[in-house]
Amino acid sequence: MRLYNSPEYILNLIHMGSINLQRLILAILCLVSLSVFAALPDEIQVYHGEISEVGEISVDVHLNYSMKGISTPDFQSERVTNHAFRLTPEFNYGLGKTVEIGLYIPTIYTPTYGYESAGYKFRAKWLPYQQKNDDLFSAGINVEFGVLRTGMEQTSRKVEYRFILAKEWSRWELAMNPMVTTNISEAYSRTPEFGYSLQILKKTFGNISKVGLEYYQSIGPYNNFLPSNQQAKTLFFVMNFEPQVGWFHDWDFHWGVGRGWNSADPWIVKMIVSPKLIH
Q1: Other CB atoms within 10 A of residue 272 CB
Q2: Which of 69, 92, 163, 270 lies 20 to 30 A from 3 at CA?
Q3: Which residues lie closer than 8 Å to 162 by C-beta, 6 or more apart?
Q4: 81 contacts 69 by C-beta, under 8 angstroms
Q5: Given this model, what pLDDT does residue 278 score?
């Protein structure tokens, strides 16, 4: 019997040169119920098959605001998300044809504590398979090391392993990021936790270049998955647009509004601004 919610079925679809998009989306959405995401990060995004060119420097500015969020702290001095605003500049550099490094400087505003620096995060992306190089799909991994200040998360030091699987067609794009997060702070459990994110985009025309959906879900520790009704889940409607006017000519904007349930923020909006740098 063919298992539509197995990883092997999805990989077989990808390796077939001609892929039925609806079958692939169905299979991945079924796999979602088995997959892996610990919490919404400061940068709410799905990694796909793009990587900086060698020597290229780029900047992305991540902004998100919890219109209605979690208001009860889980630990002392926690910066709860209700009416919280987060701004995170990200600096990227193309180190090689398959390697990109980056630095995040997350900041946060909460009504109780005001505006604060949240810490820093380093990352390295390795993308050995790239569809632009005639591979059937793009695949790789992004490893991120973060040091956050007290109150931002219960543990201040974490490592995240984000796997990247992406496929692009003439009118559609699909990306999936299974994630494993490990705490490396002392006095806390180092049991890996799982989660995942999924993105489906349809290419359009004009200033709005793409529209689609993103989905994020936590699963919990690998040895004790949380019940489904306790797993944080968020579904975003998203769009990418390029204004092509004035100062914003050739800038890229990504915008989304998300509805969360269980332990996720009920309502959140996000934006990623990618200015064009003068070389």
Answers
A1: 21
A2: 163
A3: 47, 141, 142, 143, 144, 177, 178, 179
A4: yes
A5: 58
Q: How far apart are CA 46 and CA 216, in angstroms?
A: 9
Residues above pLDDT 70, as percent of the chain:
85
Element (H, E) at 140: strand 138-148
Cα–chain-centroid distance for residue 96? 22
DSSP-assigned letters across all residues of 22-77: HHHHHHHHHHHTT----S--SS-----S--PPTT-EEEEEEEEEEEE---S-SSTT
Q: Which residues have C-beta within 8 Å of that of residue 213, sequence separation ≥ 6? A: 199, 200, 235, 236, 237, 238
Using CA atoms, how far residue 211 sits from 23, 177, 205, 243, 254, in Å, is 20, 19, 10, 15, 10
- Which amino acid, 59? V
Q: 125-128 long-range CB contacts below 8 Å, 24 or more apart?
A: 125/47, 125/51, 125/99, 125/100, 125/101, 125/164, 126/98, 126/99, 127/49, 127/51, 127/98, 127/99, 127/100, 127/164, 128/98
13 compared with 77, residue with greater pLDDT: 77
- According to DSSP, residue 254 is labeled E
Judge contact between 112 and 83, C-beta under 8 A.
no
Question: Which residue from 141, 197, 131, 199 is spatially nearest to 168, judged by alpha carbons?
Answer: 131
Q: Are 92 and 78 in contact (CB under 8 A)?
A: no
**pLDDT on residue 36:** 35
Distance spanning both ends of the chain, measured CA to CA: 56
